[in-house]
Design goal:
single chain, two-stranded antiparallel ribbon, alpha/beta, eight-stranded mixed sheet
Length: 329
């Protein structure tokens, strides 16, 4: 796989500084039951990296010590494949946090995941489900044969438990990624297309569609390099930059924790190995900021600190903007 960081480190992206951190995004490991071509984590069935029980316990201690935290965002790989996933969800919900599960839907049918959908509903976990298109051929081309129909069965199972249904309080959002090196279409219009098609063809309902730009890193970035399209895509992102999106980029209020407990400004920086920088006593000379540093000093020590940027950051501010919460504009 081609390395993308050397192509991204030199950048004219505007400097950013952190505000109050109210969201922790924890990557529970790179093990996944799928190997999607757009995956910026390079996750798959052969990956062995998983967050340990010890690191998860440190994460819970940080939650206890951080009253400003409102959201725990769980990602992977397939976060549900971490054997401690359900214990972490229970701990976070017991502490009143909003918990997001970034679910690929097919995991609901995997061996060993019995009762997963019912567990998510019982804990009132917000499900953010990847569905890069509402057409079978496009989904299977990007994610593997049979994934579309498995995804539909997963959505129907979630709907049957109340997810996406008016008044249920069980939030089900879908995620769209473009098939290739282009920006997502306007989120609101595409959402209406998704809702109409999925309801009419499959009886599926959901709350919101989140459109995400593909980041030029890991598997997707390597594919662009192989095709000779990397520079063209970077040109598209830079030319579509909108300065007004800078105020809303997710790294201002989010920290990303990798499976070993290291701290990053976002999930994309995590995959590039661009660890969080800090000023003041936090990190005390260590090469990378770790959960232990945050436990010693508190999240407040990172406030107004610098955020590491590189050329991939144009993907978050291009056009309508892109974040783990969908379009910014």
């Amino acid at each position: 796989m081609h390395a993308t960081l050397p192509l991204l480190q030199s950048t004219a992206f505007p400097p950013l500084r952190r505000g109050v951190v109210d969201t922790l995004q924890a990557n529970l490991g790179y093990l996944c039951n799928q190997s999607c071509q757009h995956c910026h984590v390079n996750a798959g069935p052969k990956r062995t990296e998983l967050m340990s029980a010890q690191t998860i316990a440190a994460l819970v201690r940080l939650i206890d010590a951080s009253p400003a935290l409102r959201t725990l965002d769980l990602t992977g790989g397939a976060p549900e494949m971490n054997p401690h996933f359900r214990d972490l969800v229970r701990a976070a919900r017991a502490r009143g946090l909003r918990v997001i599960d970034r679910c690929n839907l097919t995991i609901l049918e995997e061996a060993g995941q019995d009762g997963l959908a019912a567990f998510l509903a019982e804990q009132q976990v917000e499900v953010v489900a990847s569905l890069p298109c509402y057409l079978e051929d496009n989904v299977d081309r990007q994610r593997g044969n049979g994934v579309f129909h498995s995804s539909m069965r997963g959505l129907q199972a979630l709907n049957a438990l109340g997810y996406g249904q008016p008044g249920s309080g069980l939030v089900l959002n879908l995620v769209y990624n473009p098939q290739g090196p282009g920006l997502p279409p306007p989120q609101a219009a595409l959402q209406e297309d998704y809702k109409r098609h999925l309801a009419e063809r499959h009886g599926v309902v959901f709350n919101r569609l989140l459109t995400l730009a593909n980041m030029p890193i890991q598997r997707f970035g390597s594919m662009l390099i192989s095709q000779g399209r990397f520079n063209d895509y970077m040109g598209v992102l830079r030319q579509a930059h909108r300065p007004e999106n800078l105020a809303q980029v997710m790294c201002r209020s989010l920290l990303s924790i990798d499976w070993q407990g290291h701290v990053f400004d976002c999930d994309f920086n995590q995959q590039l190995g661009l660890a969080t920088r800090s000023t003041g006593p936090v990190n005390s000379g260590a090469p990378r900021l770790h959960l232990d540093d945050l436990l010693a000093q508190g999240l407040d020590a990172l406030e107004d600190g610098p955020i590491r940027v590189a050329d991939h950051c144009w993907g978050c501010t291009a056009g309508q903007g892109s974040s783990c919460g969908g379009a910014l504009a």
